[in-house]
Amino acid sequence: MTATIVLFELAGYVGLLLWGTHMVTTGVQRGFGTALRVWLEHNLSRRWQAFLAGVGITALLQSSTATGLMSTAFTVNGLIGLGPALVVMLGANVGTTLVTQVLSYDAAMVAPPLVLAGVVAFRSFKGDRARNTGRIAIGLGLMLLALSGMVHELAPIESVPLLKGLLGALVSEPLLAVAVATILTWGSHSSVAIVLLIMSLAATHTVSPSGALALVLGANIGGTLPPLFEAGSPIARRLPLGNLLVRLVGAVAVLPFLSMCVPLLAHLDQAPSRIVVNFHTAFNLILAAVFIGPSGRLAQLLIRLLPEPPAPNDPGKPLYLEAAALGAPAVALANAARETLRMGDMVEAMLRGAAEIFQQDDRQRATEISRLDRSVDRLGAAIRSYLADLGDVQTLDDESEGARVQEILSAVINLEHVGDVVANSLLEFAAKRIKRGHPFANDELDLIASMNAEILESLRIGLAVFLARAPTEAKRLVSRKARLRHLEARATALHVRLLREAATMSRTDDGEGVARVAEEGGQFLRIVRDLRRVHSHIAALAYPTLNDLYPEESPAEMDETGEEPIREIAKRQPLLASAVAVRDRSAAIP
């Protein structure tokens, strides 16, 4: 009965250790995840720089898995090569050992003040970073309390024959010990917690030093499995598979010499707990020194083992929405943004295709555009679902991350609207006009082409603003709406001119020519207004950035800044004034 109680209490302390690790990791990610991701992205130009970046970020996150997710996102998106990402993971593996080095010292007296300070900070401050700093302090305190409790709970195990015999039989078989530690680490998703548990077992002489080292090897292997199994594509599996291969090679090479490692490490510190953590650090440092040079060759091997799959037939199928990244909001948001850019590419293809259909009746092209619109809708739905899953898995306490979610959702909705207008309205008007045997006049085609060119250029700027949040480009995008207004005014003036020409020639046809021009001109003006509506949705990509700069101004106010509305210009130009009136009357024609 005593052994059963000890096991339950020990399991509770292990759970507390895992929860404390989780709190530290999420606190760092929520409070500083975006800054760490940007810092990692800008420190990958050289191998040793990438290695040190992996060490530093993992030491802060206390999770090589989180660092691996960031690096995997960079490789999947094409921002860095697989070779530098492998170097980052070598640094991340060393970074986890630094965490265990710090936590291996007896600091139980610091735990209660850390928890108290963390609770006060979390409840007293409103800023995201201050609250997350409190969360980090609480997590560290819980980890130290759990370690102290484990050592206290494991001390009497030496006098329990059943547990001592069970653990002794486990570590007497090194391969079995490696396998058990691998499974435990895979299930807990934390090699730090398992290594600290092994350290506690060694400190209380529950397991022999050589057996503890075998368990450490298993913890190193098991820490590579969660990101490998959770990756959703062959490209995303390359980096975790490379990390697994590196540690497997190291474990196979070291396993026969564990008994020789114990006396060597004892020269540094004879305490069993220190032997465990020093072996953990030395193992990963040696692996980094051996594999940092041939990382490029290893990357080539991984690319051959996991080649890039063929592009899906359905462009609406997401490529970058990795479920494994939901635990790291900064990475998940980058994935969602990348898919949103794919939506932008599809919308651009739809706009270019629509411009071709205005020139000639191409029903096959129209069918392709309609199919592409359905793909845009499916991809938009997948992005929204992914962001909803992100909110379920990880609460977005950071204001910038929450704002980015809203920005992505807004961009997705606007791009979907653009696709709907092109597929359901513009193509319909063009098909009606061509079907009746009255193609567009050359002047009308020129105006439509001019508006379409302006829209495509605005779309390019809008996607750049969405990606980089550049204020200058955002202002430039919104100011381009004036060009569309002037083109719309020109279209209305053109319609008035055609009506007048038809009226001059209608004396012999009882006004049939005027009626025909009025009907066709009404369709032309609807196309023009739909094009301007498309541009309005594209210009909306700039509003989140501008709202951050000018929170007191509405988008409508910013839209008119420095530009004269068409009606103000029309007051000084009689022909344009009559054109505006005709445009308004045409809009009411069913």
Word description of this protein:
With 590 residues, the protein is mainly alpha-helical. The protein is built from 26 helices and no strands. Helix 3 crosses helix 12 and helix 16 packs parallel to helix 18. The chain is elongated and about 110 Å long. It starts with a helix and ends with a helix. The C terminus is likely disordered.
Summarize the structure.
The protein has helices at 2-41, 47-61, 64-76, 82-103, 111-124, 128-154, 161-171, 174-188, 191-203, 209-222, 225-230, 234-254, 258-266, 272-291, 295-305, 329-359, 363-393, 399-435, 442-468, 471-479, 481-505, 512-539, 543-549, 555-559, 566-570, 574-587. The chain has 590 residues and is mostly helical.
Number-wise, the strands total 0
Average pLDDT, to the nearest integer?
78
Largest sheet: none
Distance between the termini: 85 Å
Globally, the shape reads elongated
Beta-sheet strand percentage?
under 5%
The ordered H/E elements are HHHHHHHHHHHHHHHHHHHHHHHHHH
What is the helix tally?
Answer: 26
Q: What helical percentage do the residues reach?
A: over 70%
Low-confidence parts lasting 5 or more residues at pLDDT below 50? 556-580, 582-590
Q: What Rg do the Cα atoms give?
A: 32 Å
Class derived from helix and strand content: mainly alpha
Keyword list:
26 helices, mainly alpha, disordered C terminus, 590 residues
Task: Please give the structural blueprint.
Elements: H1 2-41, H2 47-61, H3 64-76, H4 82-103, H5 111-124, H6 128-154, H7 161-171, H8 174-188, H9 191-203, H10 209-222, H11 225-230, H12 234-254, H13 258-266, H14 272-291, H15 295-305, H16 329-359, H17 363-393, H18 399-435, H19 442-468, H20 471-479, H21 481-505, H22 512-539, H23 543-549, H24 555-559, H25 566-570, H26 574-587
Helix pairs in contact: 1-2, 1-3, 1-6, 2-4, 3-4, 3-12, 4-9, 4-12, 4-14, 4-15, 5-6, 6-9, 8-10, 9-10, 9-14, 10-12, 10-13, 10-14, 12-15, 13-14, 16-17, 16-18, 16-19, 17-18, 18-22, 19-20, 19-21, 19-22, 20-23, 21-22, 21-26
